[in-house]
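[job 0417] fold request received: Transposase
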Amino acid sequence: MKQYTENEVQQALEDVAGGCSIRRAALTWGIPYPTLRHRIQGTQSRDIAFAGQQKLSQTQESLLSDWITTQAALGFSPTHQQLRELARRVLGDPQPLGRKWVTRFLRRNPSIGTQRSRAIDARRVNGAKADIIQEWFHRLDLPAVKGIKPSNRWNMDETGIMEGKGTNGLVLGSSETRHIQKKQPGSRVWVSLIECISADGQSLLPLVIYKGKAVQQQWFPLDLSGYAGWQFTATDNGWTTDATALEWLEKVFIPQTAPRQADEARLLILDGHHSHTCRE
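[job 0417] inference complete; emitting structure tokens
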């Protein structure tokens, strides 16, 4: 049997209200005649009738649909598993959702659909070409983005400092070019910094990531007054991990960017590194 949406039912109801026969409207929109007749007689839609049995409220599902649409427009379409995980967190319920929850969610929200993802060519990611830059500004024009104050729009990234023997002493490089680090002598030490600035020129105190099992006091000068508020951590290779990215979010970004009004939205712009899009 052909599946029909609530939107199609509403279109059929409008046709009947405009003088079309029930049978003709049902045939036009692919809706069973008894179903359309019952709706005209006052029967509620399945979504409304079973709303009390849904895990999420209709308002929560509407907000979730808006989030999916915005993420897709930004190039980060969530997977089914990510949708399930977010819904579970909204509910605050450790119990897993039903096996068919995603299918039923999509049926209740026809504006959302499953599509095959398409990998973006590396040249589109790394090349600063006009069409890529234009696409970036198109994303900034999305209503969900334009409604956020410049003071609440933030951009974070990482940079690396390679310390060791050599004429330059310190070498700056992007954290994305990690293969460079492997070519250096074993005596060199890699340190990463996560930095963040806002659209109106504010900057956050950084998170510094050392290479090691734990942060050691001997790495710091005796006078730490110039580093008040900085956060320090360590990883096995001095690079960002899922755990350090989450630590930065919780200890640096969230407390340092708290808006004046609690209901004001914040935007965090970041690249596609795996630690930036982990489940947490």
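[job 0417] notes: The chain has a mean pLDDT of 75. The first strand starts at residue 153 and ends at 163.
[job 0417] exit 0
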